[in-house]
Structures
1.
Amino acid sequence: MSLHITNNDIVPCLLGDTVITTLTTHGYLLYTLNMLKSLQPFGLDKKVLIIAMDSKAYLVLTRLGYHTVCMNHTMHSFYPWNSKGYDTVCYFKLELIYQILSLNKHVLLVDGDIVFQQDPSGDIAEWNESTEDVWIQNDSLDDDDIRNMCTGYMFIRSNEKMIDLYHVENRDEKYATCALRNNDQTYFNDYVKPFSSMAALPLRLYPNGNVFYNAEDVRETAILVHFNWVKGHEKLVKMKKYGMWLLTPEEEST
């Protein structure tokens, strides 16, 4: 099955020239709903363009009033990091980025294992007006170490260079070298970062999981927390430990 994004899909979700977007499956849906609920206090939950890979996820999301595009893919499970299936999900993230950029809109890609503590819209407005090609979360422990950037939260500017870097003709053969090797993140670090102007987001505001679990001082300053650096449903355990699992039992039963 293919992904097809149109101008009609993105118009209701625009923040300036930026589209906030995420991709999910039915097996991953509770994480996505938790992320969306964390955006609710800032009026941003219904501004996210959600790509549902399967019809079950699509039906739940549309019933809840979210703006959702359905791929009608057969993939519907929870796919742990670097497992078979996860590589396919990550491939469609690259395609999603390409299609939105091709509509002359910037992309803010947000993974479902993120929880927002503060309103991100001020920074998004700043990125809209900047000249950087990419603003992206750092996956290291040190702001000065930019060897491994995290594609779970990244802003990409729509311009000819970035569209070309994500174009299918320049993408598929390269992505084959990344499959089950950190997938879209490796693709960015190997094939996008060296050819683009990039700003790494400060860890005190945008901590990855490895930073957040080990540095208490960022827990008050963080705009968001990305619960990566754990595999499978250990994410849920971590979210509950730090009081960031927001869904009620009634909402979970959805």
2.
Amino acid sequence: MKALKDPGGVDALISALKDEDLRVRSAAAKILGELKHPAAVGPLISALKDRDSGLRWRAADALGVLKDPRAVEPLISALKDDNGGVRWAAAGALGELKDLRAVESLISALKDDNAAVRCAAAKALGVLKDPRAVEPLISVLKDNDRYVGSAAAHALQEINPEWMKTPEAKGKVSEFISALKDNNEYVRSAAAQVLAEIKRW
């Protein structure tokens, strides 16, 4: 692994992103992410448009590991990829980058037709802690996929506590009370904790 950290090793891996074999391209993307070398950011961003979804997914994941702000806009664009796995990886990567530019796009991803994407978007919004996500997250508490509802519930617990003091929060009390009757135990637990926080103020 030490040999790969020198410029020549990184350059070779970057070149491998254009190899004819998808397995080679994907392996190169994975290793470039693990090495966290800044020279890999641009080539990995370009790989988000590779013809094979497998490499696009791996590139998005690697960019999340690299955490370079240059990747934010390309990853936001990847949330509209025609492959669900790529959208899922992009949402997860945006959570890793913790950049508020992604909030609105992640909120839109809560309506994705792929449950895994909705789940990843909810988790990312919890990491970003932006109050703009509260109402959209409440709306997916009753998602038909229990894992999405659970992710939304956990995300709501992570949102900036300052929101709990606002009139908007108090206006949502009835919705959280309704969530106390949800079939999903994670949703019930989160609703109870959010209500407790709102009642404190």
